[in-house]
Design goal:
575 residues, alpha+beta, Penicillin-binding protein 2a (Domain 2), Beta-lactamase, five-stranded mixed sheet, five-stranded antiparallel sheet
Length: 575
């Protein structure tokens, strides 16, 4: 047998050095790579990692509550969940789409169609405003590209009672109508933003830091008194039903502050039910719709007469003919009132008497008085879409315009404007800004009528509610009431209708020291009565009487012993 060759020490050392060199090179490569990763390209790699796992997400601000003047909640935001997906990521999980549809309680085909048609998008809402308990089923699926986000939905505890005042928000909780829109900047707050770490399924793992703090919206206290609002809503709804009227409005104002205590319309809407949010239903007629006020404008023309110095409470007007010719038009009363004072003209609502008074005044005097009382301009309420009404400049008036304006034609007002004007009379000639938000403390105003004229006018208007006046159904037991009825024919194609009317009553109470002003409008009643004294005055009595008692206003006529200042033989003439 051959003997094995002896190992060559030199060859062994070469192989050892070669192996060591390879290991050294590998170690050097690892060190170089570590240096490259940790020092040279560290920022780039960290950025790449952040792009895959760190996200900037919005934190939704909680919208402020809307409260009535006594702290009762009128609008609150409740937590809800919305489900969004990344269709690109979810495309590879199409076998899971039926499970997702089942969790959402949606049709499989609908979900598949939406996902398939959105493959070029990275974001898609599949469901908005789910109840958190229902959204748990989606969370439990754990599907990649599916996110459940916390949002808020507006809820209105009083429903349609305050619907027209509050308005509503859209699906993103932004104000769209009413107080929600007018005070959106106050209620909405400011969304925040933060960085979070998410896993590959899009679920949050950890908060990293805050980029912008969330600022919650502020609560808003409205001037509305929910008790009076509900009272007005109930009485108006009953009147619209009983009179089979097309629509109606009631506005109640606190004379001392200018605050709107109640504002209701019929028909109304429920802001919680988005399916009925049609423009015709959520329009706030009290602030946006114009009407010719009929004889309810007469007190303000009388105010101009008193301010002119030509008339006082004892002045007499000769209306014994029962008619007055103005150009080609003859204005007449159904029952002549003879020679009468301003008190009788208002109580009997004489168009002849008012025309004679208006034609004896300078047009500028009438226009200026009406303008100072707020007609032809929006109030300070700030209500979205409020109308300014229509009051043409006196330079364009002809005698017939002056005569017809004196009994409520050729001028257009909103119920809110009319209520504000009555509130100014009740404030003894001081015009205070109309406010939809609660006011604390006394409110300064602008004097637009002398106190003497305003006080005289309130006294004259008490005769309207006396037993012989056109507004006797507005009387409230225990309180002295000053107000005026109004009935206007509705304008249509070809002129004024002979069978469509608007009935109005406006007034203040209690007359000895007015606290509340209110206007009631009943549009197109067809149940047999249409005079303002028949359809609107009873609503005024119920609403204002209840409001005075709720507010604890002391009665000023406990004995109810006032006598009818007119003879029993005089016939009631309603205008």
């Amino acid at each position: 047998m051959k003997k094995p060759k002896a190992a060559n020490p030199r060859s062994f050392r070469i192989r050892l050095m070669f192996a060591f060199g390879l290991l050294a090179m590998a170690a050097a490569g690892l060190v170089a790579r570590a240096v490259d990763l940790q020092l040279v390209h560290n920022d780039f790699l960290l950025g790449q990692g952040d792009q895959r796992y760190i996200r900037e997400v919005e934190t939704v601000a909680h919208r402020g509550m809307i409260l009535d003047r006594n702290g009762e909640p009128l609008a609150v935001s409740t937590p809800v969940d919305s489900v969004s997906v990344n269709p690109r990521v979810l495309a590879s999980e199409n076998d899971q789409w039926p499970l997702l549809a089942a969790a959402l309680k949606r049709d499989d085909a609908e979900v598949a169609r939406r996902l398939a048609s959105s493959q070029d998008r990275s974001f898609l809402y599949l469901a908005r405003h789910m109840k958190p308990v229902d959204a748990q089923a989606v969370r439990r699926l754990g599907l990649p590209g599916v996110s459940v986000e916390r949002e808020y939905r507006r809820y209105y505890p009083s429903g349609e009672v305050v619907g027209h005042v509050l308005g509503f928000t859209n699906v993103d909780d932004a104000g769209q109508e009413g107080a929600e829109l007018a005070f959106d900047h106050w209620l909405s707050g400011e969304d925040g933003k933060k960085r979070v770490i998410q896993d590959r399924m899009g679920r949050k793992v950890e908060d990293v830091d805050s980029i912008r703090a969330t600022r919650p919206g502020r609560d808003l206290s409205l001037s509305i008194d929910l008790r009076i609002q509900y009272l007005a809503y109930r009485e108006l709804k009953a009147a619209i039903r009983d009179q089979r009227a097309r629509s109606g409005s009631v506005v109640v104002i606190d004379i001392a502050t200018g605050e709107v205590l109640a504002m209701v319309n019929q028909p109304t809407f429920n802001p919680n039910d988005r399916d009925q949010l049609a423009p015709g239903s959520y329009r706030n007629r009290a602030a946006t719709d114009m009407l010719e006020p009929g004889s309810s404008i007469k007190p303000f023309v009388v105010a101009a007469a008193l301010e002119s110095g030509k008339y006082d409470e004892h002045s007499l007007i000769d209306a014994s003919q029962g008619f007055v010719r103005v150009g080609a038009k003859i204005i007449e009363d159904e029952h002549p009132i003879g020679v009468a004072g301003l008190e009788t003209i208002l109580a009997k609502s004489s168009n002849v008497g008012m025309s004679l008074v208006a034609l004896s005044l300078e047009p500028q005097q009438i226009w200026s008085t009406l303008r100072h009382l707020g007609f032809g301009q929006v109030t300070a309420s700030g209500f979205p879409g409020e109308s300014a009404g229509m009051l043409s400049n006196y330079a364009n008036w002809r005698p017939i315009n002056i005569a017809t304006l004196s009994y409520g034609y050729g001028i257009s007002v909103t119920p809110l404007q009319l209520a504000h004007a009555y509130a100014t009379i009740g404030a003894m000639g001081i015009s205070r800004p109309v406010s939809m938000s609660r006011v604390d403390g006394p409110v300064a105003g602008e004097r637009v009528l002398s106190e003497k004229s305003a006080r005289t006018l309130v006294k004259l208007l008490e005769s309207v509610v006396a037993p012989g006046g056109t507004g006797r159904q507005a009387a409230i037991a225990g309180y002295r009431i000053a107000g005026k009825t109004g009935t206007a024919k509705k304008a249509g194609i070809g002129g004024y209708s002979t069978d469509h009317y608007v009935g109005v009553f406006g007034g203040v109470a209690p007359a000895s020291n007015p606290r509340l002003a209110a206007v009631v409008v009943i549009d197109d009643p067809v149940a047999g009565h249409y005079y303002g004294g028949d359809v609107a005055a009873p609503v005024f009595s119920s609403v204002v009487g209840g409001a005075l008692r709720l507010m604890g206003v002391a009665p000023d006529d406990l004995d109810n012993s006032r006598q009818d200042p007119f003879t029993a033989t005089q016939t009631l003439v309603r205008r």
